[in-house]
Specification:
The complex is a heterodimer of chains A (229) and B (586). Chain A is α+β, with helices and mostly antiparallel strands and 229 residues long. Chain A is built from 4 helices and 9 strands, in the order αααβββββββββα. Chain B has 3 domains: 48 residues, no CATH class; 238 residues, no CATH class; 164 residues, no CATH class. Chain B is 60% helix and 5% strand. In chain B, a hairpin with a 2-residue loop joins β3 and β4. Classes of the chains: A alpha+beta (229), B mainly alpha (586). At the A-B interface, α1, α2, α3, β1 and β2 of A face α10, α11, α19 and α20 of B.
C-alpha cells in the first residue's frame, strides 16, 4: 500500500511537472506494475480497487508486441517492438529467459519510423527489480551507451528469481522518452502457486463447512434427545 | 407485428444472416492477405497492383488511399505492429440509418394501434415427445455439463500453463471473442440456455452435492438463507461493472493467465456460495453472467412457463418450488404458477421433472414478450438495464481513438494517472446517459399529467424499454469480433496451448474473416435499427399501460422517443468510428 501510495504521489508529481503522458497505454502500465505476475495479482487488484491510481506514465505508443521465439535452436531470445515518439524501439534479449546470476545481453535498436534513420544520441538503461512489498530495487544502471554497430548494447545481470523492468530512456529534441519493458528471470510466479493456493483454500473452506455441519447436527440431535427425555 | 410473423421473425433474421455468410463465403479462396492500409486480414475481393505485386483491401476506401500513395503504405506495412484499425460505417450509411430511425420514431410507430393486453403466439416445444424425454433424462444435463466443464478446464489449463502470447493461446479467443460474443447471440435465440450449460455452476454443484447426475441428497451446504439486504441484483451489477473495469482497464482480454484467473474467480464464488447458501442463491442474486443474461432474456424468444395457471392454482404440492423425488426444488425460488418473466429462471428444467401435473411448457414466443407485459418492475433491474446500455456503449468507445484523446484530456486537466483517469472516464460515461435519461423521464412525467403514477414508476418502467437498444448494439459490436476474428479458432483448436502442436492438422491455417466489411456494416445497421424498433414498440406499450388514453400516452412518450433516438444514434455513431481491434493482435 505504501508503495502504491508512493507511486500515486510520484505519478501526480510527474504529471504536474509537465511530464508528458501522451498516449500512455494501460497495457504497458499494467505490465510496468507487473500485474500479470502470479501471487501479486490478487493483492494488487484489491489494492487498486481501494486506491485506483496510475502506476507509471511514459511516452509509449501502442502495446508492445513481444515473443519468446521458441524456434530458436538454442536459448530463447526475447524480442520487443514498440513505438516511442517518432522512433521504433526494438529490444532483443539473449537469453530471453535468463536464470538468476546469468549475464544477459540486451540490444536496443532505435530507428525513425518515417525514414528508418538510426538514433544517434545516447541511450540510458536501468534494470529495476519490481517488488510488491518494499521499494523497487535498481539492480543495474543507469548505464549509458552510445551507438555501436547500429545498436546500443547492455549487459545486465539479474541477481534473483524475480520480475524486472527494463527502463530505456532517450531524448529527442529535449523531449525525454521513457520505455518500460518487463523481463522475468527464472520463474517467480508459477501458475501452480495460484492454482495450488486456490485449491487449498477451497478444500480448507469445505473442511470448515463440514465441521460446522457436524457441530450443528450434534446440537440438533442433543436437542432431540433432551426433548425425548 | 402479429401472430406468426412475430413468432417467426427472429428465425427469419437468423436465416438471412446465415444466408449472407454462406453467400459471401461461397467461393472464398481461403487465402489470407493483409490490407496494407489498415492491416486487417482480408480475402481476395478487392485488389490493386503496384510494381508487379498484388495487394488486397478490406474496402474501396482503403484501396483508394493506397492508390493515391502506395509507397507510404508499403513502408509502414513493413514495420507495422500486429494491431489494425477497422473502418467504421461510411457517412452515407450512418446518415441514412439515422434518417430511418427518425422516420420510424416519429412517422410510423406513433400512428400504429396497439392492444396492450394481447399476448403473442406461443409454440410449445415440449409437444415433441423426444425433446421432452431428452430433457427429462438425468444424463442429458450431465452430458452438457461435462462438455462445458471440459472446455472450461481447457481455458484454465491454456491460460495458466500455455504460451502467454494471446495469439498462440486459445484461452483469450475462446473466452472473450467466441464465448462472450456468442453469449449475446445465445440469449437472443435461446434465452437462459447458458445457465443450463454453465460450467462453474456445474463444478460447484458436483462438489456440493457429491454426485454428477440425478437428484442430489442432503448435500454439504450449510443452507443458510441469502442475507435479506442482498436479495436483489445489485451484487451482480457491481460485479459486472467490476469485470468491465478490469477487462478494459487492464487489458485482460489480451492476457491468457489473467483470463484464467477470472475464470477461477467465478468458480470460487459459485463454489463458496453453493456451500454456504440455500439452493442456488449465487445464480439468483450474485452471478453477473446470469443476471445480465437474465435481464436480456426478457427479450428472448423462449420461455419456461406453466401450461395452464389454473392447474397451478389447484395444485397442493407445489413440487416445482419445493421439489420431490423426481426433481430438485427450484434453484432460484421461482413458482411456476406466479412466474411472469424469464429473468430469474435458469432453465434447469427441474420443474419439468418434478411437476406431477405435467403442466410445464417450453414455449417459443415473439421477441420482447416479457417487456410488454405488466410484470413487476424492480428498481435494481432497471438500473442494471441502464448499466448495460451505458457499459456496452463504453466498451465500444474505448476501442476508438477518441477515447484515448478523452483519457489524455482528463489526465492533463486533473493531473492524475491513467488508471484513475480511466476510472473517472468510465464513471462519467456511466453516469451521463443515466442523468440524461432521468431528465427526459422528468419531462415525460410532467407532460403525462397523470398524478397517480410516480416519477419512480416512470423511471423504472421506461428503463426496460431501453433494453433492446442495449442488446442489439451489444450484438452489433460483438458481431464484429465474432465474424472478423472468430475464425482464428480453427487454427487454435489444433494448438490450444501454443506449444507447437498440430492435433487436427489445422494449426497453420489462416482463414479470412467470415464476412467482408461492407456486409458487416449492413448487418450492424440492421441490428441497431431492429433494436430501436423493438424499443419503440415496448415504450408504446409502457405508455399505454400508464395512460389508457392514446393521446396522453403519446404526449408522455415523446421525451422517451428523444431518449431512444439519442441512444440509437450514439450506437450508430460508435459503429461509425474506426475501431482499434486490440484483440486482433491475437
Amino acid at each position: 500500500m505504501l508503495r502504491l501510495t508512493y507511486r500515486m504521489l510520484r505519478d501526480v508529481c510527474k504529471a504536474r511537472n509537465g511530464f508528458c503522458i501522451y498516449n500512455a497505454q494501460l497495457g504497458d502500465i499494467c505490465r510496468s506494475a507487473n500485474l500479470s505476475l502470479i501471487g501479486k495479482k490478487w493483492v494488487l487488484c484489491l489494492m487498486l480497487i481501494a486506491f485506483p491510481i496510475n502506476v507509471c506514465a511514459h511516452h509509449i505508443l501502442g502495446i508492445p508486441h513481444y515473443a519468446y521465439d521458441e524456434q530458436y535452436p538454442q536459448t530463447p531470445v526475447l524480442t520487443y517492438r514498440l513505438e516511442a515518439g517518432p522512433y521504433e524501439v526494438r529490444m532483443t534479449g539473449y537469453p530471453g529467459k535468463p536464470t538468476p546470476g546469468e549475464r544477459c545481453t540486451l540490444h536496443v535498436y532505435l530507428s525513425r519510423m518515417d525514414d528508418g534513420a538510426l538514433f544517434e544520441g545516447s541511450v540510458k538503461m536501468t534494470v529495476i527489480q519490481d517488488r510488491l512489498i518494499g521499494e523497487d530495487r535498481v539492480v543495474y544502471g543507469p548505464a549509458l551507451a552510445e551507438i555501436e554497430e547500429r545498436l546500443f548494447k547492455f549487459h545486465p545481470t539479474f541477481p534473483d528469481e524475480a520480475n524486472y523492468l527494463i527502463r530505456i530512456e532517450f531524448e529527442v529534441e529535449d523531449v525525454p522518452w521513457i520505455v518500460d519493458l518487463p523481463m522475468v528471470a527464472g520463474e517467480p510466479g508459477s501458475p501452480w502457486t495460484v492454482l495450488g493456493s486456490t485449491v487449498f483454500g477451497l478444500v480448507a473452506f469445505v473442511v470448515v463447512i463440514r465441521a460446522i455441519r457436524i457441530k450443528r447436527q450434534r446440537r440438533v440431535s442433543s436437542l432431540v434427545r433432551r426433548a425425548a427425555v | 407485428m402479429k401472430g406468426r410473423v412475430a413468432l417467426f421473425f427472429p428465425y427469419v433474421c437468423a436465416l438471412l444472416v446465415i444466408a449472407t455468410l454462406v453467400w459471401r463465403n461461397w467461393d472464398t479462396s481461403f487465402v489470407v492477405h493483409k490490407d496494407p492500409v489498415c492491416h486487417m486480414e482480408v480475402g481476395e475481393d478487392l485488389v490493386a497492383r503496384f510494381e508487379g505485386q498484388s495487394h488486397f483491401f478490406c474496402t474501396e476506401h482503403c484501396r483508394e488511399l493506397f492508390r493515391k500513395n502506395p509507397g507510404a503504405y508499403l513502408v509502414v506495412a513493413s514495420s507495422a505492429s500486429g494491431t489494425h484499425t477497422m473502418l467504421g460505417l461510411p457517412n452515407w450509411l450512418y446518415y441514412g440509418s439515422v434518417g430511418v430511425i427518425l422516420i420510424l420514431s416519429f412517422g410510423v410507430f406513433e400512428k400504429s394501434r396497439y392492444n396492450a393486453t394481447a399476448s403473442g403466439l406461443r409454440f410449445d416445444l415440449l409437444q415433441f415427445p423426444r425433446l421432452r424425454r431428452l430433457l427429462l433424462h438425468s444424463m442429458t444435463r450431465f452430458g452438457v455439463h461435462a462438455f462445458s466443464v471440459g472446455l472450461f478446464v481447457l481455458i484454465l489449463g491454456a491460460g495458466l500453463f500455455g504460451n502467454q502470447l494471446p495469439s498462440k493461446n486459445i484461452a483469450p479467443l475462446l473466452t472473450w471473442t467466441i464465448w462472450w460474443g456468442g453469449l449475446i447471440v445465445l440469449i437472443l435465440y435461446a434465452g437462459k440456455a447458458w445457465c443450463y450449460v454453465c460450467p462453474w455452476d456445474a463444478i460447484a454443484g458436483w462438489a456440493e452435492g457429491l454426485r454428477f447426475w440425478g437428484r442430489k441428497g442432503e448435500g454439504l451446504s450449510l443452507q443458510i438463507k441469502w442475507p435479506k439486504f442482498m436479495r436483489n441484483i445489485w451484487p451482480a451489477t457491481i460485479l459486472f461493472i467490476g469485470l468491465t473495469w478490469v477487462e478494459i482497464g487492464f487489458g485482460v482480454t489480451m492476457q491468457p493467465r489473467a483470463t484464467a484467473w477470472l475464470a477461477l474467480g467465478m468458480v470460487a464464488m459459485a463454489f463458496v456460495s453453493a456451500f454456504v447458501f440455500d439452493r442456488k442463491s449465487f445464480c439468483r442474486y450474485g452471478c453477473l453472467v446470469g443476471r445480465v443474461s437474465g435481464l436480456y432474456a426478457l427479450f428472448s424468444p423462449i420461455e419456461v412457463r406453466a401450461r395452464d395457471k389454473d392447474v397451478c392454482r389447484s395444485c397442493k404440492t407445489h413440487s416445482c418450488y419445493k421439489g420431490n423425488e423426481q426433481g430438485e426444488p427450484c434453484p432460484t425460488f421461482q413458482y411456476l404458477g406466479t412466474m411472469d418473466s424469464s429473468t430469474y429462471c435458469i432453465s434447469c428444467m427441474e420443474c419439468l421433472k418434478s411437476c406431477e401435473q405435467e403442466n410445464v411448457s417450453l414455449n417459443l414466443r415473439p421477441w420482447g414478450e416479457d417487456l410488454t407485459k405488466t410484470f413487476r418492475p424492480r428498481s435494481d433491474e432497471a438500473y442494471l438495464a441502464l448499466v448495460l446500455l451505458t457499459l456496452t456503449g463504453f466498451h465500444g468507445l474505448t476501442m476508438t481513438g477518441l477515447w484515448r484523446e478523452m483519457l489524455m484530456a482528463i489526465q492533463m486537466t486533473l493531473g492524475i494517472g491513467e488508471t484513475f483517469a480511466f476510472t473517472l472516464g468510465m464513471l462519467g460515461f456511466m453516469v451521463a446517459p443515466v442523468v440524461a435519461y432521468a431528465g427526459l423521464v422528468g419531462v415525460s412525467w410532467f407532460s403525462g399529467g397523470e398524478q397517480s403514477v410516480t416519477y419512480r414508476d416512470y423511471f423504472i418502467r421506461y428503463a426496460y424499454a431501453l433494453l433492446p437498444i442495449a442488446l442489439f448494439y451489444h450484438l452489433a459490436h460483438n458481431s464484429e469480433h465474432l465474424l472478423m476474428e472468430g475464425q482464428k479458432i480453427v487454427a487454435l483448436v489444433s494448438d490450444p496451448f501454443g506449444w507447437e502442436w498440430n492435433l487436427f492438422g489445422t494449426a497453420n491455417w489462416t482463414l479470412p474473416p467470415l464476412i467482408d466489411l461492407p456486409t458487416l456494416w449492413a448487418v450492424q445497421v440492421c441490428l441497431v435499427v431492429i433494436g430501436h424498433i423493438y424499443s419503440l414498440w415496448i415504450a408504446r406499450h409502457t405508455a399505454l399501460a400508464f395512460f389508457p388514453d392514446s393521446k396522453a400516452a403519446l404526449r408522455s412518450q415523446l421525451p422517451m422517443l428523444v431518449a431512444m433516438i439519442l441512444f440509437s444514434t450514439v450506437s450508430l455513431w460508435l459503429l461509425k468510428q474506426p475501431m482499434e481491434m486490440r484483440t486482433s493482435a491475437m
